[in-house]
Design a protein that fits this description.
Blueprint (H helix, E strand, L loop, with lengths): L5 H22 L16 H30 L6 H9 L12 H13 L19 H4 L15 H14 L3 H26 L4 H7 L3 H8 L5 H16 L3 H12 L7 H13 L3 H8 L1 H17 L21 H13 L4 H28 L4 H14 L9 H12 L3 H13 L11 H19 L27 H5 L4
Length: 488
């Protein structure tokens, strides 16, 4: 059938994205004020119709993505970049979807311009007449009085958008979307380079519906963190570790989880040096470079070092996707009158286990048993699973790294299942309804049945580090495995 071809998937996915956008104009995360008559509530009936349309569009997009992955795994030749443009383009003019975080970004940029301490107060300090006041009215309830947990590099970008747009909600949102598109371009460049151009890697990373709805449509700054982080790793793999460390340092100054990449960049540098004491000492230098970048960026931004004390503010908000928070809360309710201390202990234990997992993966990468890029991806997946606060899009931290080397293995397949399921957790309005978890369960069940039935195509491509088959022309350059000094 034509619809099951790569061209059919491209059209089907574009139709799904268009439906998400059109539905979002009625049921998206619309601003409380400042919508210019464009992004305004349309009445309950139209809102429900828009939400249904957006969910149907999301389902079409996920179905097209899944089938597209099967075709790529079966060896179908395809231009993934063109497909990405088709699927992302309809989302560019959508209102904020699936999250109100972009209003926080705008308000925080305005706070810097207005002279407020962005690390000491939340957007509620903005007064009528100040830049960002309209955006602050649309910030989610949890975040209204919460200081910014982001680094100064991101705040400088948000500040620039507010300054260029005068803080008006609609142009400021579109300005933040341009930042998100730039982040997507960085991810494409980095994943393509780290995977030696395998189209399937871009399928799991950049074409992922979870990324499209939360980075392009939702404008989460996680996309910028991922793009800078993986770009830095790519430069390190190519022997340009100083520039790579600078990019990773900038990524940390967007969101702190990118610091995990410094361990694996250090391992890459040390192994390129031949190991030994000299390699270990040189492997410490990326951390030194990144620390210097962080210090310079903080001083240049003029926002102060308050970001050092706000990294844990997100953990105070309970999210149902956090295993350690749920377990700690349940255990605390059983054994104590106040469950919060027990919950805090379980959350900390989860982070200790995550640190241990990262250490093991780092050791395996050092010994050459695990590819460093794959180790980074797995480390970030472990960090997300065991974090005290988990949002659906956090999974992308690790997915994009895993995609570079293991997109078509069992791990890649189950991360694809998780991505498809998590895309349903949040409504276009940014709320987390109970039926979202029911839809997640349905998505997991359908995908699991498809996997068990063998509906995932047959592999015709070689594993990431398998010897290449004979070809008429010699290969140019070295593979990533050769550059990082790792094997299968």
């Amino acid at each position: 059938m034509w619809v099951l071809s790569t061209a059919g998937c491209r059209w089907l996915g574009a139709a799904g994205s268009l439906a998400v956008t059109v539905g979002g104009w009625a049921a998206g995360t619309l601003p409380v004020r400042g919508g210019w008559g464009l992004w305004e509530p349309r009445g309950s009936a139209l809102t429900v119709a828009g939400a249904v349309l957006a969910y149907l569009g999301l389902t079409l997009l996920i179905a097209a993505w899944w089938q597209y992955g099967r075709l790529l795994r079966a060896g179908a030749p395809e231009r993934v970049g063109a497909t990405l443009c088709w699927w992302a383009a309809p989302l560019l003019l959508a209102p904020p979807l699936y999250s109100a975080d972009v209003y926080s970004y705008i308000a925080q940029g305005a706070m810097v311009l207005e002279g407020h301490d962005v690390y000491g107060a939340g957007p509620s300090v903005l007064a009528p007449g100040e830049l960002g006041w309209d955006a602050a009215a649309s910030v989610g309830g949890h975040w209204t009085d919460t200081p910014a947990p982001y680094g100064p590099v991101f705040l400088v970008l948000a500040q620039a958008v507010v300054k260029l747009t005068g803080g008006a909600v609609v142009p400021a949102v579109l300005g933040m979307r341009l930042v998100a598109v730039g982040a997507l371009a960085l991810i494409v460049w980095a994943v393509r380079g780290l995977s030696d151009g395998r189209p399937g890697a871009l399928w799991l990373a950049a074409l992922n519906p979870l990324l499209l709805i939360h980075v392009v449509a939702g404008m989460h700054n996680d996309g910028l963190m991922i793009g800078l982080m993986l770009g830095g790793v790519l430069l390190a793999v190519r022997g340009r570790w100083v520039a790579g460390s600078v990019l990773v340092g900038l990524a940390v100054m967007v969101k702190s989880p990118a610091a995990v990449a410094l361990l694996f960049v250090g391992i890459i540098v040390a192994r390129q040096c031949g190991g030994g004491v000299r390699g270990v000492l040189k492997g410490l230098l990326p951390g030194v470079v990144a620390a210097g970048v962080a210090a310079l960026a903080t001083v240049a931004a003029g926002t102060g070092f308050g970001w050092l004390r706000t990294q844990s503010v997100a953990g105070t908000i309970h999210t149902a996707l956090s295993v350690t928070s749920d377990l700690g809360l349940g255990l605390g309710m059983l054994v104590a009158d106040d469950p919060e201390p027990v919950k805090a202990v379980v959350q900390q234990l989860g982070l200790v286990v995550a640190a241990g997992a990262i250490g093991v993966l780092g050791w395996r990468a050092w010994k050459g048993h695990t590819d460093p890029v794959l180790g980074l991806g797995l480390s970030l997946v472990a960090l997300v699973v065991l974090s005290p606060m988990v949002q659906p899009w956090y999974l992308l931290w690790g997915v994009c790294g895993v995609a570079a080397g293991a997109w078509d293995g069992a791990l890649g397949r189950w991360l694809a299942v998780a991505s498809a399921a998590l895309a349903y957790e949040t409504a276009p309005s940014g709320h987390t309804p109970a039926y979202g978890f029911a839809l997640m369960g349905v998505a997991v069940a359908v995908a699991a049945v498809a996997l068990r039935a063998g509906r995932w195509g047959s592999t015709r491509t070689a594993p990431p580090h398998a010897p290449a088959p004979p070809v008429p022309a010699p290969r140019r350059g070295r593979s990533r495995a050769e550059r990082t000094g790792t094997g299968a």
